[in-house]
Amino acid sequence: MSTNQPIVSSGTPHFFKIILEDTLQENKLRIPRKFVVNYGETLSDSVFVKLPCGSKWKMKLTKEDNNVWLDKGWADLAKHYALKRGSMLIFRYEGNSEFNATRFDTSTVEIDYPPRPVEFDKFDVDLELQAHEEEVSQDE
User: Fold this and answer.
1) In a domain, 4, yes or no
2) Is position 8 within any domain?
3) Residue 129 sits in a domain of what CATH number?
4) SS3 category, 14
5) From which residue to which does the signal peptide run (predicted)?
6) CA 79 to chain centre
7) Splitting the chain (140 residues) into consecutive groups of 10 residues, what average pLDDT does each group show?
């Protein structure tokens, strides 16, 4: 293998997680350490995870013992999409603390996504209104 070859990356970082029993019991998902080393400085205390169906889930990050976890909000997503041992998620980092995620079942096929409950849609609208109000107040 030639050492003169340039390194090529996809441009958008990805990682995947296979759901284990510990993840289900602890109600949090550890972000891989290598990802945190490379991109952790760009992550805020809260992140958004968006699914192909258009739903967007806000989650708090917890840092403990050199690990970073998707914590508060993770259990709601896991329950809604019926995550179980062996389910797999692929995360694509879009920057600005936003991830796109795709969920696969234990047969390795992407799932059909159930609609998001109405109370969560209201939560998203409230977040958008709050962000807009913050922009307006900063402009003044």
Assistant:
1) no
2) no
3) 2.40.330.10
4) strand
5) none
6) 15
7) 64 92 94 92 92 92 90 93 94 94 92 72 50 52
